[in-house]
Amino acid sequence: MDQVKRRVAVTGLGAISPVGLNVAECWSNTVAGRSGIDTITLLDPTPYTTRIAGEVKGYEADRFLDRKLAARSDRYTQFAIIAAREAFESAGLGGGAVAPERLGVIIGTGIGGLGTLETEHIKALEKGVDRISPFFCPMMIGNMASGRVAIELNARGINFATVTACATSGHAIACAMDAIRLGRADAILAGGAEAPITMMGLGGFCSLKALSTRNDDPKTASRPFDRERDGFVMAEGASVVVLEDYDFAVRRGAHIHAELLGAGMTCDAYHITAPAEGGEGSARAMILAMEDAGITPGDVDYINAHGTSTELNDAGETQAIKVALGEDRARKVMISSTKSVTGHMLGAAGGIELIFSILAMRDGIVPPTATLVNPDPACDLDYVPGEARKADVRCALSNSFGFGGHNVTLAVGRR
Is 171 in the active site? Predict the structure, then answer.
């Protein structure tokens, strides 16, 4: 006998990004089209072909975290803790609202503690290997955000990290949804965190020629779907949502922001960095998400696109949307890339973009592709250019695609 699929509620939201230190700031700046991209200050950008990025502005670890905790946590983990705290508090999970053994954490990262790795490697070369910090390994590894958040919130249930490049937080949220559906937890904090603006992170993507070099105009450097786009803009931050068994959330009187309806996960099995021709894999992810959610293309009002501002991704995603929804419906759906203002937060991108999709439903406003001025003829759908648009959004899809051919689409609906 088929098991009845448990419903999954979204009850908590948390974020820290180039456009804000909390969800409210991130959302208001994104709706207004205020870019968080600027000249890099975290390191001397002079030697690099790209000298711009989306840094978290006004961030001082001691303002948010205990000094010892901050000193023993990589920057990506610090961001994860901050976003998780906000999500946990906004969900009202304190005071014994959920049993620790039924509270889980799934927070991933695309790159992990790259800053720690570089610092300790340089120290070893200059001062000897015996000077490597005893905290090096636990600070660097990609599961430590999940581990640290669990310690912080006394979450003793399911706990692991996803690592699928730019699809990381989308996969974390999809896995958390599945775990709740299977009854493995009552509530799970899920998302991603990233701090990639380092010597090797910036240098590596520059060598790959994946980044925008519009150094003299950082505010409009991330140009998804624009014919003048020349690469993505790397960014840092974290995003976390609280997912709960819907009935559990109702019983405890939680505020439910939205219902997570379904997810689709696929692989291109095509190339290590380029998307499959025609967006085949990403189209299947959208189709599977709609099937899992029990919705049709006609139910979808908005898509938060992966929209990285790279030539192949934006054109491929456009084709994929047409395949998944059918061309007629695709031309009626509002689509936007909020990376136009946040930059690309890599492993944290999918989470914050799901949050933006939820807030679009809440507020009846679709965030813009703020920097879209000259649409690429290959990108000929409604990308909400320039300014936010008032609209009744009942159901949305959020796309995340990563190097390695990883694709994940999340379907979310208004409760």
Answer: no
Query: Count of domains in the chain?
Result: 2
Asked whether residue 366 falls in the same domain as residue 228, the answer is no
Digitized pLDDT (tens) for each residue of the chain, 415 residues in all = 346 789 999 999 999 999 999 999 999 999 999 999 999 999 999 999 999 999 999 999 999 999 999 999 999 999 999 999 999 999 999 999 999 999 999 999 999 999 999 999 999 999 999 999 999 999 999 999 999 999 999 999 999 999 999 999 999 999 999 999 999 999 999 999 999 999 999 999 999 999 999 999 999 999 999 999 999 999 999 999 999 999 999 999 999 999 999 999 999 999 998 888 888 999 999 999 999 999 999 999 999 999 999 999 999 999 999 999 999 999 999 999 999 999 999 999 999 999 999 999 999 999 999 999 999 999 999 999 999 999 999 999 999 999 999 999 999 998 7
Determine, yes or no, domain membership for 268: yes
Among candidate residues 26, 166, 379, 395, the one labeled active-site is 166
Residue 108's domain comprises 8-251
Query: What is the domain-level CATH number for residue 182?
Result: 3.40.47.10
255 is catalytic: no
Which residue in 171, 257, 306, 406 is the catalytic one? 306
Domain ends where: 197, 219, 251? 251
Q: Does a structural domain hold residue 257?
A: no
Same-domain status, 304 and 243: no
SS3 track for the chain: CCCCCCCEEEEEEEEEECCECCHHHHHHHHHHCCCCCEECCCCCCCCCCCCEEECCCCCCHHHHCCHHHHHCCCHHHHHHHHHHHHHHHHHCCCCCCCCHHHEEEEEECCCCCHHHHHHHHHHHHHHCHHHCCCCHHHHHCCCHHHHHHHHHHCCCCCEECCCCHHHHHHHHHHHHHHHHHCCCCCEEEEEEEECCCCHHHHHHHHHHCCECCCCCCHHHCCCCCECCCCCECEECEEEEEEEEEHHHHHHCCCCCCEEEEEEEEEECCCCCCCCCHHHHHHHHHHHHHHHHHCCCHHHCCEEECCCCCCHHHHHHHHHHHHHHHCHHHHCCCEEECCHHHHCECHHHHHHHHHHHHHHHHHHCEECCECCCCCECCCCCCCCCECCCEECCCCEEEEEEEECCCEEEEEEEECC
Residue of 175, 344, 379, 395 marked active site: 344
pTM value is: 0.97
Q: Catalytic residue at 306?
A: yes
Same domain, 160 and 291: no
Residues 191 and 274 placed together within one structural domain of the fold: no
